[in-house]
Each structure stands twice: as C-alpha cells, then as structure tokens.
C-alpha cells in the first residue's frame, strides 16, 4: 500500500482525536493532534495574562510572542500515546481543562496564529504516512490529502461525551455549561474569517452519533484501505 495523508476534520468533541490516534496506531502512521497545538497556544495566553478583562485575546501582545511559542509532541513510553509539550514542558493535562476549552476557539480564530501553526503542521506532514485531525486539515493544511473525513454528531451527544470524559478525570463540571461551550465553539469555528470549519468538497462524512467504537474503527479502516490501494 502506498503512504498517504489522512485528514480528519469536524466539530468539537466528536472524538476526532481518539479515532485519529487509534487509526494511526492500527496502520503504523504518525498521529498529529492539531487541536492540541491551538490549545497549547491558548494555555500560553492564560499563563502569560494575554486575555483581556472582557474575555477577548490581547492579539497585539500575542503576535509579538508567537515566534517564542514552541509546540511539539513526544511519545509517552508507558501509554504509547503522543503528549503535547509547550516550550519543552509537558502540558497534556493542562490543555484539556474547561478553562482552555472555553477560550481555544478565540485564539484559533486569529489569522497569525493559524498561519504559524499551519506552516508547522505542513512541515510535519511532508513525508506523508500521517493522520492529522482538526478543523481545516482537509481544506487548508493538506488540501491534496488522499483521504479526507468530516466527522459530525449532534451537539447534545458531543456534550455528553465531553462531560463523561471530564468527570472520569475527576473534574467537577456542569453538563449545561459544556453544552453551551460546544454550541459556542461550533458558532465561532464556522463563522470565523480565517479558515472556517467546513467540509472539503471531496471529504467523506462520518456521523458517529449512534456508532459504537468498533463500528467506527471498521469504517475508518475500510476507507483507509480503499484510499491507499488506489
């Protein structure tokens, strides 16, 4: 089979990262979590007081520091899963909090942030044999990807998944707050000026609202085999 690029886009809390990680592991590809990169920049903003009192981003200050922000991934030898590092520090747990989730879409909407991270993502994927998930992978980062998948599910189902995930991690969260966050992220992601979330014309839609993990895995492997055998 030839090495290909697999782009997985879709709404927040659709399980894109989990399915992309699993697929990459199954077929021996490298997995790159583009969402974690935007989350890391958001965490940088939180840690460096780059959010204004009204909740907006101090974009002028962030732009001055954008070249000082280094985001990388390192494989955890115990879990065999990639973890996110911000300027050399493991921030995998910190970037998954509601504090980051509620602000990441604002940071991701900034043109200079997307430009810097897209350039880095394209560099990471030069050799193919990668699975990358995000919002604009099939439309902007890798428009020539051989396999593009667009994942969707109802907002309520996505909020329930996120709620269960955070509760399992011991975080005290409100379902209504998470649902509101999911809906707000959808709005921001779809209406932003730079690289809005949309399905690529040649992407295959996967609505996983009522699919089991095993059904989803089988579907993904089937689509990969079709694309890699062309």
Structural class: alpha/beta
Q: Strand-residue fraction?
A: 15-25%
Measured between the Cα atoms of the first and last residue, the distance is 9 Å
Shape: globular
The arrangement of helices and strands along the chain is EHEHHEEEHHHEHEHHEH
Query: Would you count the extended β strands for me?
Result: 8
As laid out across the biggest beta sheet, the strand order is 2-6-1-7-8
| Average predicted local confidence, pLDDT | 93
- What is the CA-atom radius of gyration, in angstroms? 17 Å
Biggest beta sheet summary: 5 strands, parallel
Write up this protein:
This protein is an alpha/beta fold and 230 residues long. The protein has ten helices and eight strands. The protein has a five-stranded parallel β-sheet. Strand 4 and strand 5 form a beta hairpin. Helix 1 crosses helix 10, helix 2 packs across helix 6 and helix 8 crosses helix 9. The mean pLDDT is 93.
């Amino acid at each position: 089979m030839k090495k290909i690029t697999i782009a997985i886009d879709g709404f927040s809390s659709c399980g894109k990262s989990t399915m992309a990680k699993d697929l990459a592991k199954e077929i021996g590809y490298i997995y790159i979590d583009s969402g974690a990169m935007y989350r890391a920049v958001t965490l940088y903003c939180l840690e460096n007081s780059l959010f204004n009192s009204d909740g907006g981003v101090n974009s002028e200050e962030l732009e001055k520091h954008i070249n000082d922000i280094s985001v990388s991934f390192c494989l955890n030898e115990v879990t065999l899963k990639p973890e996110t590092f911000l300027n050399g520090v493991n921030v995998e747990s910190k970037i998954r909090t509601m504090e980051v989730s509620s602000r990441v879409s604002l940071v991701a909407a900034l043109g200079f942030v997307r430009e810097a991270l897209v350039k880095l993502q394209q560099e990471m994927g030069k050799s193919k044999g990668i699975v990358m998930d995000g919002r604009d992978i099939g439309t902007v980062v890798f428009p020539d990807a051989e396999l593009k998948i667009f994942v969707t599910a109802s907002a309520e189902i996505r909020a329930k998944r996120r709620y269960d995930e955070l509760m399992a991690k011991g975080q005290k969260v409100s379902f209504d707050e998470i649902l509101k966050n999911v809906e707000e992220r959808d709005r921001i992601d779809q209406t932003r000026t730079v690289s809005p979330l949309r399905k690529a014309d040649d992407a295959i839609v996967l609505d996983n609202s009522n699919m089991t993990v095993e059904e989803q895995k089988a579907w993904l492997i089937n689509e990969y085999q079709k694309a890699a055998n062309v």
